[in-house]
Design a protein that fits this description.
F-box domain-containing protein; two-stranded antiparallel sheet; globular
Amino acid sequence: MEPADLLALSRVDKAFRRILLSEQFSPVWKAACRNKGAPKCPSHLSQVKWAYLLFGGSACFSCGSNLGIMRMDFDLLRRACVRCLKTNLVYSRRFTQLFPDIDPTIMTLIPHTNIGPHAHEHASNGKYYWADDIRDMHQELSTFEKGKRKLRDGKTENLKDFKAARMALVTQIVEYAPKCKKWFSIISHLKDKFLK
């Protein structure tokens, strides 16, 4: 079964959705993606989220629009229309101006892209962050009191360990994104060629 078919089935009703999105169904999603030659799912994402990113259609993840030029960004792990890119991408040099109450070192904990909203797919030396990712990480960091926080399982997590894990994750995303971009470019080219 194709990943797009699984995604469509997951939208049929609540029963299908519950079954298809369950952890037990993960190997089916993995096999469907593998059969399409997709890059391996990153360890921090579920198989379902990965399939949705790769095969979930062309809708913008932020506004849901199918209009406008869509960009699949494997650094930010989202698909976005031009309007949402212009609204949500934060250039690193403007960070303190836009988020004066947030410590700029938070940027080391968040994935970024080097393709700005007006770049027409051309990379730059700048770093651009998704505004909601900044807010979400700020909220996450606020859950630590005196450098520690309690987890759901009752264990304690140290802020220093959390930050180290996040920085490692950002590095992993940055290193893996080129492979995904190459795969997506090949697939898009083949699709365009087939449709002509």
